[in-house]
């Protein structure tokens, strides 16, 4: 499926890479939103709103010591930490090859493992068989490594590489930079026992070929990866994983980088070790 087809996005099968279609027109409906002069009535409403807020702020400030004399029954309950708040646990220090390993045997450890494994499975190294096998050996449960290697070999074919503008071995042509990165936005545990956990990882991804004449420019996508993990070989390992599209935010008005800017950014900005 090409970039210009009717569907507006490309699904790369079982490889874990998708492209998200940008909404046409105003995603919120109605006429296009434009800058420029606003009506006097809208300006009046804005001024009135600001005045009301100022009056409320002054009234609150003038309460003085009255606010401190509230009884416990009149106080509002303290807000709980947002679900996106980090646990404060430091990232692991050990690695298997280039992939973080040695995660705690806890729910937080399972979430941290899933986030880091999502990065590895969405990396450019997955397009080379030798480096892909090393990744799978590091993140897949030992009993499932062989079957996973065979499944990914069927997905990452030379034809698939060529469809992205790559050489048959998954490398970028001379003068081009291949970009494949996954960035976890957040994690959520949906099921958990002592030695097993199901974790969802919400991600943003970059995929494409940066170059002046590239027919597959780098695009952004949003997706959620679901991993079933088990405690094996003294670490969290993947039993199965799947992916679905979204949730995707409304695209902004950012200027798209040219090929040189994108290549420079990919080569200069390093990744992270994630900890929930």
Q: What labels would you give this structure?
A:
22% strand; 27% helix; 6 strands; four-stranded antiparallel sheet; two-stranded antiparallel sheet; 276 residues; single chain; alpha+beta; Nuclear Transport Factor 2, Chain: A; disordered N terminus
How would you describe this protein?
With 276 residues, this protein is α+β, with helices and mostly antiparallel strands. 27% of the residues lie in helices and 22% in strands. The chain has a domain at 92-268: Nuclear Transport Factor 2, Chain: A (Roll). It has helices spanning 40-61, 107-121, 129-139, 145-155, 158-163, 259-268; strands at residues 94-96, 99-101, 177-192, 196-210, 219-232, 235-245. It has a four-stranded antiparallel beta sheet. Strand 1 (94-96) and strand 2 (99-101) form a beta hairpin. The chain is globular. The model is unreliable at 1-16 and 18-81 (pLDDT under 50).
Strands side by side in the biggest sheet: 3-4-5-6
Based on the structure, what is the oligomeric state of the protein chains? Answer: single chain
CATH T-level fold name of the domain at 92-268: Nuclear Transport Factor 2, Chain: A
Helix content: 25-40%
* DSSP E strands, number: 6
Any guess at the CATH architecture of the domain at 92-268?
Roll
Q: Give a quick account of the main beta sheet: strands, pairing sense, barrel closure.
A: 4 strands, antiparallel
Using the alpha-carbon principal axes, give the shape.
globular
Structure, briefly:
With 276 residues, the chain is an alpha+beta fold. The chain contains six helices and six strands; from the N terminus they run αββααααββββα.
């Amino acid at each position: 499926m090409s970039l210009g087809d009717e569907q507006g996005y490309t699904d790369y099968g079982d490889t874990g890479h998708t492209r998200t279609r940008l909404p046409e027109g105003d995603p919120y409906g109605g006429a296009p939103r434009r800058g420029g002069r606003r009506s006097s009535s809208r300006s009046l409403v804005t001024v009135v709103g600001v005045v009301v807020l100022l009056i409320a702020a002054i009234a609150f400030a003038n309460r003085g010591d009255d606010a401190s004399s509230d009884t416990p029954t009149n106080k509002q309950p303290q807000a709980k930490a947002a679900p996106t708040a980090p646990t404060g646990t430091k990232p692991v220090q050990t690695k298997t090859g280039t992939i973080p390993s040695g995660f705690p045997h806890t729910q937080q450890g399972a979430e941290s493992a899933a986030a880091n494994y999502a990065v590895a499975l969405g990396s450019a190294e997955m397009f080379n068989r030798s480096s892909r096998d090393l990744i799978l050996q590091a993140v897949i449960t030992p009993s499932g490594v062989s079957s996973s290697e065979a499944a990914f070999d069927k997905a990452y074919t030379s034809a698939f590489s060529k469809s992205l503008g790559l050489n048959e071995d998954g490398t970028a042509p001379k003068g081009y930079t291949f970009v494949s990165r996954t960035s976890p936005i957040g994690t959520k545990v949906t099921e958990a026992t002592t030695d097993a956990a199901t974790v969802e990882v919400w991600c943003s991804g970059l995929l494409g070929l940066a170059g002046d004449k590239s027919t597959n420019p780098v695009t952004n996508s949003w997706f959620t990866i679901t991993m079933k993990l088990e405690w094996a070989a003294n670490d969290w390992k993947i039993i199965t994983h799947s992916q679905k599209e979204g949730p995707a935010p409304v695209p902004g008005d950012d200027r798209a980088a040219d090929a040189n800017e994108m290549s420079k950014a990919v080569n200069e900005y390093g990744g992270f070790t994630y900890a929930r």
